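Handoff note, outgoing to incoming analyst
You'll be picking up this chain. Sequence as last confirmed:
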Amino acid sequence: MNIIRFISFFCILNLSIHAQSIDSQELNQLMNKWHQSASEADFNSYFDFTTDDFIFLGTDPTERWDKKQFMAFSKPYFDKGKAWDFKCIERNWVLDYSKDMIWFDETLNTWMNTCRGSGILIKTKAGWKLIYYNLTVLIENEKIKGFIELRKQ
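Most recent structure output, in case you need it:
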């Protein structure tokens, strides 16, 4: 049991050291700018922040897009002058030990009410880029049965 405590302590200490090296202010600004690009219908800025092999998972069960597919889906919304407006309420960061990849989760205020986004950023020669993003609608546990029934319709 003492060995397990030591290993747990070492892992927590190691994670704390890595977490301290995250410039969360810079990363928050990058993600906030990405969301702002959508609200301002800045198509190029929005997609320039993503890698060529970017994957976006939307809230609909059919929404799993690579970058080209997501660009095609999104273009009509951006062309109207405003795509979507997501505002971050809270964001958490975890840095990979290599310091070349970071993942996060965020709580968002959206037109769908409160949602959660999670994603992965990778460090490239051009700076941090978004390679993966998953947007989910949140539903309280006590409301899940009604939600399941609604989905069956």
